[in-house]
Amino acid sequence: MSLAAVRRNREAVVSGNTANTWSAPAASGALDAAVRVPGSKSITNRAYVLAALSEGPTLVREPLDSRDTRLMLGALSALGASSETSGDGVLVQPLRPEGDTEVSVTLGNAGTVTRFTPALAGLGSRPVVFDGDEAIRRRPIAPLLRALVELGLDIEDEGRGAPPFTVRGHGGVAGGKVELDSSASSQFLSALLLAGPSFTSGVTVRLVGDAPPSEPHIAMTLDLLRRFGAVPERSGREFHVPATRLSLPAYAVEPDLSTAAPFAVAAAVAGGSVRIEGWPEHTTQPGDWLRGLLEELGQRAELDASGLTITGSGGFPGARLDLHEVGELTPVVAALLCLADGPSVISGVAHLRGHETDRLAALATELSGLGAGVAETEDGLAITPAPLHGGVFHTYDDHRLVMAAAVLGLRVPGVEIENPATVGKTFPGFADAWQAMLS
Ligand SMILES: O=C(O)C1=C[C@@H](OP(=O)(O)O)[C@@H](O)[C@H](O)C1
Ligand SMILES: C=C(OP(=O)(O)O)C(=O)O
């Protein structure tokens, strides 16, 4: 790709020009690259919420700066927690809800902002209107809103149990015991646990219904709570977080391993090796599961104290994978498996129909559009590799579809990724970093 084309792509990504497409670069030979990806979205936004609920300021170091994290800081500011960005990171001040005039919180299409911030509005004394992109109005949240009402929040919606809704703050939330069906999203449970220390009686959540997806994200919530001084307990399907004063003066965010996913699988697709700097040796992030997957597929994955190196073996078989715990990796894994030497089945991810877009429908349509045999199943995808060809890959305002298409583009010339700027939800610099991996 010419330098002018790289610049055009970068300008489009920055300006959010949605008419733009990005010609995914093909690998011209074996890779030999080192990559650094930005901070974890899930950790950054949890750290911001817990910082706002703390007694003193928290310096969040190496945070992600992306659409979702800016939306979180915007939401916290509307709710009464200011923040300041400097070379050291983002300094978040404790929530000081003042005034009684109505404010609004912009949700974009950020699941973490949408699920984690309504409880905080109950701690203040004003009406807070929550709304965002068209897509967020379709994403599930009703079981969480019901649980919040049972815990003492005053919430008014339009009868659909979805944004837009208004939380009328009455200066505190009683908390206590509640049953929750978190099977559509683990974020419902995380939302109650994160806010629990600030409820007068803490919170006790008993899960009902099918098991929540994304267990590692629940572990991440418990881990972050403990770092801020909370004492959450779990006994099977019951969670208890007592009322506690939180405090953590400084916290450094790990690189985002789900953002690292397309880079981590690149060596398996194109050959050679790719090193991801700063891959943590211990983490709750679901992306860490990729190390095991790549080894199972015959690639070399070497983790040391400062990063992970993946070395491709030249090919890989198909696989049968239950991705219930690591659902957000599905788009990249599905793209990878379209390039396998045999058929694959992905299961356990019916809840992806309620993600940024209906990811199962989007993946089946777009991957099939490039020639792969991809069909939706009840809870996943059946993938039969076939010769692939170029074409437009639509991204449905879903950052992870941009990443998935880029993976295919490594081997398939002529993949035109529509609206690449949407990747800015979690990694505004993705196209540049991807190009740099290939140069
Ligand atoms: O808590 C979090 O930070 C997340 C939890 C998961 O949500 P679901 O459980 O809704 O899949 C994940 O897919 C999402 O990207 C981030
Ligand atoms: C599902 C995702 O995001 P969200 O935080 O909006 O749920 C994702 O990042 O894959």
From TrEMBL:
Principal subcellular localization: cytoplasm
EC number annotated for this UniProt entry: 2.5.1.19
Catalytic activity: 3-phosphoshikimate + phosphoenolpyruvate = 5-O-(1-carboxyvinyl)-3-phosphoshikimate + phosphate
GO MF entry, a single one: 3-phosphoshikimate 1-carboxyvinyltransferase activity
Matches recorded under CDD domains: EPSP_synthase
Active-site residues from the entry: E328
Quaternary organization: Monomer.
Segments forming domain Enolpyruvate transferase: 28-433
Protein name as annotated: 3-phosphoshikimate 1-carboxyvinyltransferase
Keyword annotations: Amino-acid biosynthesis, Aromatic amino acid biosynthesis, Cytoplasm, Transferase
Pathway: Metabolic intermediate biosynthesis; chorismate biosynthesis; chorismate from D-erythrose 4-phosphate and phosphoenolpyruvate: step 6/7
Species the sequence originates in: Amycolatopsis alkalitolerans
GO biological process, one term: chorismate biosynthetic process
Subcellular localization: Cytoplasm
